[in-house]
Design brief:
mainly alpha
């Protein structure tokens, strides 16, 4: 055996809590095959699922729908304002409005770049 392949000293493991609970879910054949393939890469489905505990966040679909609805209203309003600016291109009144639109665009781009900070 070469130096690289020799096993090192065994590390002491922290005492494990007994695994007494079981989770069962029903999946389609396609979902199962996908999970099995992912699990094969990391040492089994159990390892795959345990590795993902704490990394997965559950989002409320109702909250997402409300957020999309509000975003749609806001974007509709911005579109109306932009149309008004196009109609009044030569007017001095449109300059502050255009400046605010640029600011709103900058804020929206920043929010899209960092969606986790909502």
């Amino acid at each position: 055996m070469s130096e690289k392949n020799k096993p090192g000293p065994k590390k002491k493991r922290a005492p494990k809590e007994p695994l007494t609970k079981k989770i069962q879910i029903r999946v389609t054949e396609e979902e199962y095959a996908h999970l099995k393939a992912l699990g094969k890469e990391v040492g089994g489905m159990t390892a795959l699922l345990r590795n993902h505990f704490g990394r997965v966040s559950i989002r409320s679909r109702r909250d997402d729908q409300e957020m999309r609805r509000m975003l749609g209203r806001g974007l509709g309003l911005l579109n109306q304002i932009a149309k008004w600016c196009n109609v009044h291109k030569q007017s001095m009144e449109s300059l502050p409005v255009k400046a605010r639109l640029v600011e709103v665009e900058r804020l929206l781009r920043a929010a899209c770049d960092h969606p986790e900070e909502r």
